[in-house]
UniProtKB/TrEMBL annotation:
Pfam families given in the database record: TMEM70 (PF06979)
Higher taxonomy: Eukaryota, Metazoa, Chordata, Craniata, Vertebrata
GO biological process entries: mitochondrial proton-transporting ATP synthase complex assembly
Organism annotation: Smithornis capensis
Protein name in the entry: TMM70 protein
Family stated for the protein in its record: Belongs to the TMEM70 family.
Keyword Transmembrane among record annotations: yes
Record has Nucleus as a keyword: no
GO cellular component, one term: mitochondrial membrane
Region described as Disordered: spans on this chain: 1-23
Membrane-crossing segments per the record: 36-58, 70-93
Keyword list, A-Z: Membrane, Transmembrane, Transmembrane helix
Length: 187
């Protein structure tokens, strides 16, 4: 087994770029909020778990409680509701945030890395033809890859042509019309 240090050393001695991934291709985008998203989700999960384990103990030890069984069920249900609402809401809002985006030229495929519900990296592979731009600008959605909502920041693409190709702007008839007009002006 190769340790991460040795993997970095071997990779730096090779001829491939540090932005190349052997399986996914060339790195074209890296989200700058990846650590923040992971940290906030982890903090939310950990406080919810802590709340679930400590709330019954605190209620029993302090004597604070409600006498009726129905009121106890409603009280604990309300606490449980807020314990689960925050992490679920955070997951729904951030599940499409792209941490890294790779592009494989020879197959015209993209690999988007996002976080799943258990904070592990999730891989989504799609073709450029699967990218759909929403008709109406939506919060937390830049494009759809097949049916999955994805969020990227266009200004974080080191090469603007990579973003244009991802969104299909390089194949748009508008840009082709401009190129024809420019060619006519040169003549």
């Amino acid at each position: 087994q190769v340790t991460s240090f040795q993997g970095v050393a071997v990779r730096s001695l090779g001829t491939s770029s540090p932005h190349e991934h052997p399986e996914h291709g060339r790195l074209v985008y890296k989200g700058n909020l990846a650590k923040v998203v992971l940290g906030v989700k982890f903090f939310s999960y950990s406080t919810s778990i802590f709340n679930l384990f400590m709330m019954p103990y605190i209620m029993l030890k302090t004597g604070i409680g409600v006498d009726g069984l129905l009121l106890q069920a409603a009280f604990y249900g309300l606490i449980g509701f807020f314990t689960f609402v925050t992490p679920v809401t955070l997951h729904i809002l951030t599940k499409g945030y792209v941490i890294r985006l790779y592009y494989k030229d020879e197959m015209d495929t993209y690999t988007a890395i996002t976080y799943n519900a258990i904070l592990a990296e999730k891989v989504t592979v799609f073709h450029q033809k699967d990218v759909k731009i929403p008709d109406i600008t939506k919060m937390f959605t830049t494009f759809y890859a097949k049916t999955k909502s994805m969020l990227v920041n266009p200004t974080l693409f080191p090469n603007p042509q990579d973003y244009n190709h991802l969104m299909g702007y390089d194949k748009s008839s508008f840009f082709k019309l401009e190129e024809v007009e420019e060619a006519d002006e040169r003549k």
